[in-house]
Amino acid sequence: MKRMRYRLPSFGRRVANIAGCLFLWVTLIVGLTGLAVADESLPEREQVEQRLAELQPEEGVPPSTAIENDIQALQAVLSMLEQIVQTEERLANINQRVERAPEQLLRLERELAEEDSGDAVVSATDLDDLPLERL
Hints:
Helix content is 72%, strand content 0%. By secondary structure, the protein is mainly α.
């Protein structure tokens, strides 16, 4: 006997995909939050820029190898601090999306229930009346 598989309607698959994405986002946020706590020991951007300005050699004077290494290290620190700021902004954006996700999921579930309770047979005139977004 051949087993029949139940397939969710396309709208139902979308709801299931959104729920899966929500779980993924929450998992990512938990991981990123742990990384964001460690930033208390990082130097301030202004301090790094000030130290970098102090190390810049005068024009025409080549820097020593040690000073050149320090300059490169400070430039790398500035780059990493900028990446941390960008990551924190992305995390805040993700947090906002996660806060809105339950409401969106409820709305999609209501729409799915309305679709399931509606007539399965749609006439051509009904399709003409529907907005393009619903099709």
